[in-house]
Amino acid sequence: ILNVEQSPQSLHVQEGDSTNFTCSFPSSNFYALHWYRWETAKSPEALFVMTLNGDEKKKGRISATLNTKEGYSYLYIKGSQPEDSATYLCAFSGSARQLTFGSGTQLTVLP
Amino acid sequence: DSGVTQTPKHLITATGQRVTLRCSPRSGDLSVYWYQQSLDQGLQFLIQYYNGEERAKGNILERFSAQQFPDLHSELNLSSLELGDSALYFCASSVAPGGNYGYTFGSGTRLTVV
Predict the structure, then answer these.
(1) How far apart are CA A11 and CA B29, in angstroms?
(2) Coil, helix or strand for A83?
(3) Which residues of A touch B25 (CB under 8 A)?
């Protein structure tokens, strides 16, 4: 059973704060790491797909980094806004080429 | 609209019954995945199809089965339903299998077994 761990489980920040969360995954047999944003009552939406060690991706105020050797990825949100409130999921793809999801970090941005 | 269509959106049925959930993938996507999200659980992978063929199986119960048809839509069949099968069932699609491409998720089918 693959272990994909996300921390923290939940996070409350003030509008304008920058924040980051962690995704830990197996460092062997790495193929890809995905980040998804999941708003309440909607379906998960892909943010990033990263495949190379040292990858950095950016979309607006959100960015992600990848370290496959040590098995972690960080997601950063700069200047959080209330509309960033969502659950952020990471998912690991290994040699079996299936996505195993973490249980997510629930972010609440307070106005 | 993500382009992945799931029907029905909600389903209430009794224990012991059988239901079919349907998914139409985004245009051009050949891979379909089914996930289950139970209360307080993350997304659990059930099964994957690619261009009509089963590619991978996850934690799918023997009472559950799925298939992908020539037009690429997929159906998930759940039989002998138990209370514990109540969950949100998501379908997702991608261009190809393997994890190199992001998944596009449907809006899910909420199944309630009473």
Answers:
(1) 35
(2) helix
(3) none
